[in-house]
């Protein structure tokens, strides 16, 4: 019988969180899926769970002592890092996250982070206030900007009794992400994926503009996931504060007109177009050269912006086209109509009451064959992979 992670070498880093006991279940799930797992623990982690538990279940010695050379006299962290396909740190404490973000290497687990060349996945776990602290968030942003994959924590009751964000991601979410990173990797090789992301801003005068609440996170997650799966990725982004995923070529635009030109200018090279941007439907008919003075009342005339997706649909050729439909009502019927009208292969409908601007989202994916798949609330990274799974299926003609 074959398993999804057969032949994969995973390092599981366990740190000193109250959720450390959940790492035992993660180990069991990963080995159950066929992976060989080496566990590395911090000193604090050993206060929560005995290394013996992990040793028994992984059937391997547990790495705790940086200064113990391994059996063939290699330097342990260098040898282990070089062999691994993935380094998963779950749970990751605020302390360890800070060390990773700043290159501090004072134990086995943090040395391994600096010496491994494989993808790194963090699953943070901590109390609500710790997780919300700007220092922790800044450190996570730093790590993400360097290509570290970070799972969103879950909302719920915490060990302290507080309710909020900070719980370790669910076991199946963590293992699903591991599987995604290890098994999807090359199925978009040879494709050029153009992703649009973020809002557009339509200027009214030099200081004011019309826009929307899009954060750009969905589009950036798609760009990153497509890159992980071997695609050459072009990202056309409206104004956002998000860092460019490493290896992705980004063009910054402000207005819908600029986005249209940036997309059409790169369309010939594109084999898959995914329009995740929240393009403003309208723009002010005039753009005042000077700041508009305060008036008793003001009427602004709006003009329709170009429909980038419809334009790309007219020039479709063999390209795969994926659109998004953000709705507050009649989600599926509106999305279906848009799919047909704009010659799309797939449409991702999201109820903007969940997820617009946030880290997670809930979407329904529709295809040309009339299939309608409603996904549960997932991180945007996971949704990105789900969308790309279906893009790959369209390419294969499934
Ligand atoms: C009972 C208890 C529970 C803790 N849970 C967490 C936690 O969930 N997340 C966290 O970041 N720190 C937690 N801490 C604090 C860490 O154990 C502490 O910051 C430690 O230095 C982490 O070391 P490490 O990152 O090297 O494992 C907890 C401490 C105690 C005493």
Q: Which secondary structure elements does this structure contain, and how are they paired or packed?
A:
Layout: E1 9-14, H1 22-32, E2 36-41, H2 45-48, H3 51-58, H4 76-83, E3 86-92, H5 94-102, H6 108-115, E4 120-124, H7 128-132, H8 134-145, E5 149-150, E6 154-157, E7 163-167, H9 171-183, E8 192-197, E9 202-203, E10 209-210, H10 217-228, E11 232-237, E12 249-252, H11 256-266, E13 272-275, E14 282-284, E15 302-304, H12 308-314, E16 320-327, H13 331-341, E17 346-351, E18 360-361, E19 363-367, E20 372-374, E21 378-379, H14 380-396
Parallel strand pairs: 1-2, 1-3, 3-4, 4-5, 8-11, 8-13, 11-12, 13-16, 16-17
Antiparallel strand pairs: 6-7, 9-10, 14-15, 17-19, 18-21, 19-20
Helix pairs in contact: 1-3, 1-9, 4-6, 5-8, 10-14
The structure holds flavin mononucleotide.
Describe this protein's structure.
With 398 residues, the chain is an alpha/beta fold. It has 2 domains: 9-183, Flavin prenyltransferase-like (Rossmann fold); 192-396, Rossmann fold, CATH 3.40.50.10300. 34% of the residues lie in helices and 23% in strands. The protein has 14 helices and 21 strands. Strands 12-11-8-13-16-17-19-20 form an 8-stranded mixed β-sheet, sandwiched between helices. A 5-stranded parallel β-sheet has the order 2-1-3-4-5, with helices on both faces. The radius of gyration is 23 Å and the shape is globular. The protein starts with 8 loop residues before the first strand and ends with a helix. The model has no long low-confidence stretch (mean pLDDT 91). The site of flavin mononucleotide (FMN) has 15 residues, from helix 5.
